[in-house]
Specification:
The structure holds two protein chains of two kinds. By secondary structure, chain A is of the alpha/beta class. Chain A has three domains: 5-64 and 173-245, HypD, alpha/beta domain 1 (Rossmann fold, 3-Layer(aba) Sandwich); 66-170 and 255-299, HypD, alpha/beta domain 2 (Rossmann fold), CATH 3.40.50.11740; 315-357, no CATH class. Chain A contains 15 helices and eleven strands. In chain A, helix 1 (10-23) packs parallel to helix 11 (222-237), helix 6 (118-127) packs parallel to helix 7 (144-156) and helix 7 (144-156) packs across helix 12 (257-266). Chain A is globular. In chain B, the strands form three sheets. A seven-stranded mixed sheet of chain B has the order 9-11-8-12-10-13-14. Chain B has a five-stranded mixed sheet with strand order 1-2-7-5-6, covered by helices on one side. A two-stranded antiparallel ribbon of chain B has the order 3-4. In chain B, helix 6 (218-227) runs antiparallel to helix 9 (299-308). The chains are: A alpha/beta, B alpha+beta.
Chain lengths: 361, 353
């Protein structure tokens, strides 16, 4: 398959791994921010090809994982109502709230539908005018334009029974939160290629300068990731700190202007709570006041739903790289993908779940 | 047994199931949740030496004649899909469960649970494909049952088929015979049935030329057994895909299994669809595939014989049984590293990004 096979190639991977080994003189902690990259690293066991000096820290970039427990309980509350059709991407359905997950709501009679695009949810709203159709709008900058488009379309077509339960989060504020922590260990970042496809990478330049840290925009195939690591290590060994673009076959500096304009039309940047980290200022998208009629949190009264995370979960430490998943006393015991205590065990892209599935036990 | 003893018995037997107080779809998905349900609920209560074989069919003894007995229910949606329909699927599936147990499929039953309002013409097409499939596999449909349920109480049609077959002379299919060095063979491209069903479902608007691989494997099995007495296990990797089947074998046989990613046959179309949906083809259902594990010395002989058969032209050795890490399936990846191939916990769900 073109554009895939070249980046899953044995010889290419070996040759970059050799180059990494040749230039690595010191120990380095590098974080891949995106859950998709964590998934690839585990699925192809990329770490096996790296020299022992390089420690990969798996970042908080899995949208499923960082969605607060409280919001999942809100989704479950909405989905349990008789007049609602609740729509979501597949992997959010299995994320446990404090008592059940959305699949369990479906099992007891809730109308929960898996969709492949938020525009399908708008279509469902159009076909079911007597129901309130809610889409669980979760994700980073990557999924935000499609979700914004669904609100834009519903508004343009006068569809009033559609709304989104919004928990959009943004990458640069999360990087800043990690770097400004007094315990920070991270010395270089692989930035998320698909987030930058939408947003470009201008926002990362001031971050790189302020914290004197290399940031390499990186793709998602194993050879991409090895190359991203090579570029990061090269900068570190040469004592440079710049933003570089490994994923230039897809990403431009400015990003997708049309998508960014749409985001500006629909969303404001707001404070957001991240599961496992806490509230990060200006780290997410919320619907603009003029689209309040499409905001499920405003349509359904959900103020009374307040939920705390399990005190046993050390997600914050794992996401900062201060602990490895298997250093947690609950890992694989009380905390498993079927019964996760916290964020990184939730989706297969979360650091703990990836360790669990791909055998780092 | 009186009613009183039954209720006393029940009081002493708390329900064993763990985290869920309702049955979820994932309990039927073929992953760890299915296994928990089957082990904790069904095996624990129905336990006997035949069930404990944990094979696709139970092997029973009657006057020195060994008979394989199996059953399966078909609830596929949509009921018509490229490459087949629920009818031929129901016949082929039961034929295959018998065949992989080392039996010649003989007789099949079929029970229909039909939803009120099903188009009579659709039912006719289903029945005709069942006849064609049964003729092709050389089995007779000898008994059956029909129930019609209220509209909304079923999904057009559900079919249960049971089957019996005669175990071939000398066939000794038993996972406990697997030993380090054994080769693992598959008869062609994986994940075609599952991807076909997904792309035929509403809500997923992409067109493919992918067809279900549904087929009866009994003549292929006959060929395999005609050249080797050292076939240790055969399985049809249906629900849960080859990853789940290999994990089941590894744990039943208490051996390690290693497969090589670059050997696993898969079409470009199926790979493309899996990339778009974020699904792993190792976990996607097949309906015309067989995994054969046999002694290394018979490997080439079996492979050559399989390639002569129309359903085995693309047969290939994808890995071997290993000494270390019993119960674990390891895959050598395309980039030369190794990783564990785990059992999936529930149904595979498309990812957000």
């Amino acid at each position: 398959m073109k554009y895939v096979d070249e980046f899953r190639n044995l010889d290419a991977a070996k040759s970059i791994a050799d180059k990494i080994r040749a230039i690595t003189k010191h120990k380095w902690n590098i974080m891949e921010i995106c859950g998709g990259q964590t998934h690839t690293i585990m699925k192809y066991n990329v770490e096996e090809l790296l020299p022992p000096e390089i420690n990969l820290i798996h970042g908080p970039g899995c949208p499923v994982c960082v969605t607060p427990l409280e919001l999942i309980d809100k989704a479950i509350n909405i989905a349990s109502r008789a007049d609602v059709i609740f729509t979501s991407f597949g992997d959010m359905l299995r994320v446990p709230g404090s008592k059940m997950d959305l699949l369990a709501v479906k099992a007891i009679g809730g109308n929960v539908k898996m969709v492949y695009s938020p525009l399908d949810a708008v279509k469902i709203a159009e076909q079911n005018p007597d129901k309130k159709v809610v889409f669980f709008a979760v994700g980073f900058e990557t999924t935000a334009p499609a979700n914004a488009m669904s609100v834009f379309e519903a508004s343009k077509r006068g569809i009033k029974n559609y709304s989104i339960l919004c928990s959009h989060v943004l990458v640069p504020p999360a990087i800043e939160a990690l770097l400004s922590s007094k315990d920070n260990l991270i010395q270089g970042f692989l930035a998320a290629g698909h987030v930058c496809t939408v947003m470009g990478y201008e926002d990362y330049i001031p971050l790189s300068r302020r914290y004197k840290i290399p940031i390499v925009v990186t793709g998602f195939e194993p050879v991409d990731i090895l190359q991203g690591i090579f570029m990061t290590v090269k900068q570190l060994e040469e004592k440079r700190f710049e933003v570089e673009n490994q994923y230039s076959r897809v990403v431009t500096k400015q990003g997708n202007i049309a998508a960014k304009n749409l985001l500006n039309e629909i969303f404001d940047v707001v404070d957001r709570k991240w599961r496992g980290i806490g509230t990060i200022p200006k780290s997410g998208f919320g619907l603009k006041e003029k689209y309040a009629g499409y905001d499920a949190e405003k349509i359904f009264s959900l103020e009374n739903i307040i939920v705390e995370e399990s005190p046993l979960c050390i997600a914050g430490l794992v996401l900062q790289g201060l602990k490895k998943p298997m250093e947690c006393s609950q890992f694989g015991k009380t905390c498993t993908p079927e019964n996760p205590l916290g964020a990184p065990m939730v989706s297969s892209e979360g650091a703990c779940a990836a360790y669990f599935h791909y055998g780092k036990r | 047994m009186s009613k009183e003893t039954i209720s006393t018995f029940n009081l002493n037997c708390p329900m064993p199931i763990s985290n869920y107080d309702k049955v979820l779809l994932a309990h039927g998905g073929g992953g760890t949740l299915s296994h928990q349900l089957i082990t904790k609920m069904f095996y624990s209560q129905f336990e006997n030496e035949f069930l404990n074989q944990q094979h696709d069919s139970a092997v029973l003894n009657f006057d020195n004649q060994k008979i394989a007995f199996t059953t399966d229910s078909y609830v596929v949606h949509p009921i018509f899909f490229p490459g087949g329909n629920i009818g031929d699927l129901a016949v082929n599936g039961t034929v295959n469960d018998l065949a992989v147990s080392g039996a010649k499929p003989m007789f099949i039953s079929c029970s229909f649970i039909i939803e009120e309002g099903l188009d009579m013409n659709e039912l006719w097409q289903i029945v005709q494909s069942m006849k064609i499939a049964a003729d092709k596999a050389g089995v007779k449909i000898v008994t059956g049952d029909t129930k019609v349920v209220d509209r909304g109480k079923g999904d057009k049609i559900f079919i249960n088929t049971s089957g019996i077959g005669l175990i071939y002379d000398g066939a000794n299919i038993n996972p406990r015979n697997c030993k380090p060095g054994d080769v693992i063979v598959i008869n062609g491209k994986i994940a075609e049935h599952g991807v076909t069903i997904m792309s035929a479902r509403e809500g997923l608007e992409f067109e493919t030329t992918i067809k279900s691989d549904t087929a009866a494997l009994n003549t292929l099995v006959e060929n395999i057994l005609s050249v080797s007495k050292n076939v240790h296990i055969m399985r049809d990797p249906t629900r849960g895909g080859i990853a789940s089947t290999l994990n089941e074998i590894a744990s039943l046989a208490n051996v390690g299994i290693q497969i090589e990613q670059n050997k696993i046959p898969i079409s470009e179309e199926v790979r493309g669809a899996c990339e778009i949906l974020g699904l792993d083809p190792l976990y996607i259902a097949n309906e015309g595939k067989i995994i054969v594990i046999a002694s290394a010395e018979d490997g080439e002989k079996i492979l050559a014989k399989m390639k002569e058969h129309p359903l085995g032209k693309e047969s290939v050795i994808i890995g071997q049984v290993r000494n270390d890490e019993p119960g674990i399936v390891v895959m050598k990846t395309l980039i030369g590293s190794s990783r564990i191939v785990d059992m999936i916990s529930g149904e595979q769900l498309p990812r957000i990004c």
